[in-house]
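Hi,

I'm pasting everything inline rather than attaching a file, because the server keeps stripping attachments. The sequence lines come first, and each chain or strand is labelled.
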Amino acid sequence: MKNNYKLGNIEVISFILLVMINKLILNVPYYIVNLTGSGSIVNIIYIGIIDFIFLLIIIKLLNKFENLDLLDISEFLAGKKLKVIVGILSILLFMLVSFITLIDFSNVLHTIYFSNFNILLILLLFIIGILIANIIGFKSISRTATFIAPFAIFSVIVSFFSVFNNYDLEHLTPILGRNYYTTFCLGLTNTFAMYIIVYYYFLKPLLKKPEDFKKISIISYIISLGLLILTVTSMLTLFNTTTSSEPINSLFLLVRQIELGTFIQRVDSLFILLWIFSIFSYLSFVIFIVNRILRKLLNVSNEKMLSFSTCSILFGLTLLPINVSEIHFIENTLYKYIILGFMFGLNFIILILANIKKLRGNK
Amino acid sequence: MKKILSLILILNLSLFTLTGCNYTNGIDDYYFIISLGLDVTDNGLIKLSVQNSSTSSESESGSSSGSSSQSSNYKIYSVEANTIDEGIAILNNYLNKKINLTHCSALIISEELAEKGIRSYINTLSNNPELRHTCNIIISSTTAFDLMDKVSNSGEVFSARLYDYLTNTTDYTGFTIKSTFGKFFQGLDNDYYEPSAIYTSVNDSTVQTSGIAVFKNDCMIGHIDASQSIAHLIISSDLEDSVITLDNPFSDGEKVDLEISLYKNTDIDIELINNTPFISISVYPEGAVLSSGKSFNYIDDENIKKLENETNNYIEKLLNDYLYTITKKYNSDIVGFKALYKSEFLTRDSFEQTHWDEIFQDSFFDIKINSRINSSNLFNKE
Amino acid sequence: MFRFMYIVLGYLAGFLGIAFGFFIHFLLLANQSSFGVSFFAPYIPFTDLSKSETLHVDPVWKREKRNPYLNTKKPNIEDHISMKWRNNEK
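And the predicted assembly:
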């Protein structure tokens, strides 16, 4: 069937890295640095290790269920009711994520480049792009993402190295931040930065070689963590953490300062172009996941037509009157704790209980 | 599928044409300024001055000498307003074009305004996506308008390089620093070092850099002269090249000129002794003798050592003067000793218990100079 | 044909329009295949680039493997020592 396109290893890794890069584009490193100050690097390494152990546990638990994703496992655990509940919660999470991503990035574009343009048209352009991507099919989305991911990674790495001359290494000290409690206890909430773990619950049925799931997860996790450390380090060394100024987009401010000699200056629009591509790919992928979940819940044969309704709902959400400060509040508080609850709470408990049920069933 | 695709594409395009709210600004709609000046007026308003180069079409026909199409006519427009954006709006109305700050290479602030505090103006400009962070900040001893007027009569042909002779002098004289808007804003924003800017003195017909304007938070509290600027650059390891003149150790009444730079970054070590900062600084200048009187002999090791001792004494005196000026007189840490000291602590809370801001003024210094004389240019002995 | 679409999109929505156009164009190209081989063949979907003909083509005597994106039953065109009789003669 056309809808059953399977992803190769490189394609999956590209998707996960795109998810991470989109988080880096949208102020997540800034929120981390704002909370833990100069101790951010130690904090990221600390939560990286904790999340890695958590990821290994998830892979081990998922190994018992071949080619099943979270919805199928919840159906196995407690029947259709739990499947529907988990499905609806997952849809709500992904719609929230895509809504926040879209409206935040559109606001940045509107403020900096398109101040004469109506923001609704920017949003409409994104929505139509996502809609067309989903109608064309998952094969195109995955191949486009595989093409765009290296450029997006390159943009993050270049933005780190190009501004090296302006770095103030004194901003990295004191190395443990404000105090031990902030870095190691309060800083645990920064785990929301490794949001990619949510996607591992839904990836297995999409893989061409499910036996490589462990290898793919570990490689993509380590590269994502590396990119996060790189961006947080550049944010920390370039911007001040002791005062409370909040930029609209910290990575954009970083990229504005790239200057190689007198010829290469103000190359921020090139980076914005790469980020627009990555936002398009990422949102297309998220809407595809939402369509796949809806297909499983509603038993629809052709999920492509569901794109119309999901994209309309997404556009409707973006029409909510919401200003930049409210978006940042949602990103920094509500979104953070919802993701934490989803990653470590509901899904994990379902996996553990399903494994226990399977063990008892085998006995 | 193709039908749906084409329908969507047509819908997309037709939607855009129907709304008609697309408005783009072309280059002709903008008025690109080279510099922005801020002065204070008697009635509490600010005087905003903008400088632009007017390009003439006459020189486009080309001549045998190959002149460029830019002429050296610069226009300055001024307006009084409450805030910068209000002034820009009034100028937009007057000029019938929108002022664009993307090519602004200098932000000039008068000393009088700087002494009153400039945080609000810096915050306003940092919020503007057009202004580059590499735009230089210059403090004028008289008014910004006066400086812009004198600079425009300097005869410089290329508008992009109009302020280069003020801002790039530090590379070969060491008489000031490179102060950019981004660095100044960071200095205002953080509490680890105080901001500083280029200080220029404006005479009857000339403008020249004459030191560094010292700020405490956002108010200018004074300035240090050119020789102390060399000391500042030595301590912050930013000295490229500079010429110093010492007393000739071999013959009284004569002078020796040395071209100095640094062969190694300055080492700074800070510790607290009896709740007072004790800062030991090791400096590594290297020099080449430019001119040294009627006769000299630099083949002899003893002579070189004598000259090195004299250099050490001179630079030590220079650094002492500078350090006691910024601690005792101004109490303004423009070097960033606080930033260096905090790296010895694990957490910010433990660093804040030292109350560095209160004890900085009582700092005392131990300076070690390890100079070496490398060459005497063309002749070693005369 | 597409260049007019890019011109119109660029006029309407600036570089965002061009990025949108490029994204859609790339999606359409990624969907295309010729006799089962994808348009962006050795790169997307990613196959072993050392075995594929990409920027350069090996000399005739070195071409031992078929391109992996063809998904052939027999990946080898010829053995490593194809002219066995020459070795036997020696």
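Chain A is about 75% helix and 0% strand.

If the labels don't parse on your end, tell me and I'll reformat.
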